[in-house]
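It is worth pausing here to work through a concrete case rather than discussing structure prediction in the abstract. The textbook approach is simple: state the sequence, then state the predicted structure, then interpret. We follow exactly that order.
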Amino acid sequence: MLNAIIHGIILSFGLILPLGVQNVFVFNQGATHKRFVGALPVVLTASICDSLLISLAVLGVSVIVFGIFWVKAALLGVGILFLLYMGYVTWNSKPDANRQKTESFTPMKQVMFAASVSLLNPHAIMDTIGVIGTSSLSYQGMEKWAFTLSCIIVSWIWFTGLAIAGHITGKIDTAGKGLAALNKISALIMWGTALYLISTLIK
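Step two, the predicted structure:
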């Protein structure tokens, strides 16, 4: 069982570490809110969505759903439009030194965006299925449970830590210059992901 736990931890960190829309958004929200509690909606949503995707990958349900062409096409279409729109909003966002509430996402907006970049990103879903789902096939019974829970726990720890790191960075960057640059980077990543999804849809 220990091997399954270690395997799950290493595998999850390998998948979650690369800079992507989800990670940048969680970090950004941690940085733009004056109090860490203000970023909790995005942390909880991202963690819950990852937990859901991991569970579905292990159960094999996502493979069945993604086998239906129109479902895949619909997910791609919605994901592309949302990423293009949010990239525009993020690019034009101008955080100030006081990190006023108007520059931060509301709890509902955090939830909607975090859920969208998690559940409407076919590339992320396929990675989860292809890596975690496939890896789980080598385990049975309690070992499979241990492997799955290890992957899920890593997601919760990672997103919490990412928001905390963002919050600390926001306190240090009192002029807001770093946050402005982060917004530009985040927008470029969103647009880049949208272009990737468009190429996937065309293929």
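Step three, interpretation. The chain is about 80% helix and 0% strand. The mean pLDDT is 79.
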